[in-house]
């Protein structure tokens, strides 16, 4: 069973394709919680701690709001319900969309997207491997590898899969790294960790650093020092346009 949290047509707010008109499919479920990011949501009076998309991660508290998908036809009907230009970018995000990487419904949907000329972009934590030989459609996909840093609160063993990183960066149509950084974390430890992660890439994949935060104030607070850090290291600074423009509002 596949779970869809939401779909919406907007612009890409982060990373290499920032500003591009994009249709998002946000899937439910994740193999991490990333409570170190300190983002919270309240449901039934209980404050839930996690990442900035905790509503798509925490199955226990939020799955009753997710849509159950038991056929590719459902996903195609959702796709067809949008009036979008030809070959609009399709963003598959979460949660962690690659928990469904071997699901027949999911793979068939990717093949349909490709046949229509869409650029397929995954937003993934990079810890789950992809079988590019069994499902050749993944060779046509783009991957934003948001590999989690120590600030996520997840263990090193859980968040960094060197084989998956190498496999994706060597076999996908395109792949780049995208890291969430708080200003207080900037320093030698951060640099060493990023360099260790990107060393697992087959190619010299580009690096984008984003200011951590699930609201406009935190994104602004973390931006200036991060820009200077990117200038020093030669990394790309990525704004988070959707947060800067719409703050904490979801589904946009």
Instruction: Say what the CATH topology is.
Output: TIM Barrel
Summed up, the helix count is 8
Biggest sheet strand line-up: 5-1-2-6-7-8-9-10-11
Mean pLDDT: 95
Flag low-confidence runs.
none
What share of the residues lie within helices?
25-40%
**Largest β-sheet summary:** 9 strands, mixed
- The succession of helices and strands, N to C, reads EEEEHEHEHEEHHEHEHEH
Assess the beta-strand content as a share of residues.
15-25%
The secondary-structure class comes to alpha/beta
| CATH architecture descriptor | Alpha-Beta Barrel
Number of domains: 1
Helix and strand arrangement:
Layout: E1 2-11, E2 21-27, E3 39-43, E4 46-50, H1 59-62, E5 67-69, H2 72-80, E6 89-93, H3 104-115, E7 120-124, E8 142-145, H4 156-159, H5 162-171, E9 174-181, H6 188-198, E10 207-211, H7 216-233, E11 236-237, H8 241-246
Parallel strand pairs: 2-6, 6-7, 7-8, 8-9, 9-10, 10-11
Antiparallel strand pairs: 1-2, 1-5, 3-4
What does this structure look like?
- This protein has 252 residues and is an alpha/beta fold.
- The protein has a single domain (2-246), classed as TIM Barrel, CATH 3.20.20.70.
- It is 29% helix and 23% strand.
- It has eight helices and eleven strands.
- A nine-stranded mixed β-sheet has the order 5-1-2-6-7-8-9-10-11. The protein has a two-stranded antiparallel sheet with strand order 3-4.
- The chain is globular, with a radius of gyration of 17 Å.
Key features of this structure:
TIM Barrel, two-stranded antiparallel ribbon, globular
């Amino acid at each position: 069973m596949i779970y869809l949290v939401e779909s919406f047509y907007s612009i890409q707010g982060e990373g290499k394709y920032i500003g591009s008109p994009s249709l998002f499919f946000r899937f439910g479920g994740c193999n991490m919680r990333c409570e170190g990011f300190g983002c919270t949501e309240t449901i039934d009076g209980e404050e839930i701690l996690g990442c900035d998309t905790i509503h798509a991660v925490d199955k226990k508290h939020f799955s009753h709001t997710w849509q159950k998908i038991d056929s590719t036809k459902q996903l195609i009907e959702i796709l067809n319900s949008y009036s979008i230009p030809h070959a609009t970018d399709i963003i598959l995000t979460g949660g962690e969309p690659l928990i469904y990487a071997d699901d027949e419904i999911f793979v068939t949907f990717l093949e349909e997207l490709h046949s229509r000329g869409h650029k397929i972009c995954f937003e993934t934590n990079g810890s789950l491997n992809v079988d590019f030989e069994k499902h050749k459609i993944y060779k046509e996909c783009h991957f934003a590898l948001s590999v989690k840093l120590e600030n996520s609160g997840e263990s090193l063993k859980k968040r960094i899969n060197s084989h998956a990183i190498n496999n994706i960066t060597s076999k996908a149509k395109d792949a780049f790294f995208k890291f969430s950084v708080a200003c207080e974390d900037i320093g030698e430890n951060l640099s060493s960790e990023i360099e260790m992660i990107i060393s697992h890439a087959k190619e010299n994949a580009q690096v984008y650093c984003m200011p951590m935060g699930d609201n406009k104030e935190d994104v602004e607070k973390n931006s200036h020092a991060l820009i200077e850090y990117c200038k020093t290291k030669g990394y790309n600074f990525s704004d988070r346009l959707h947060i800067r423009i719409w703050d904490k509002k979801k589904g946009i």
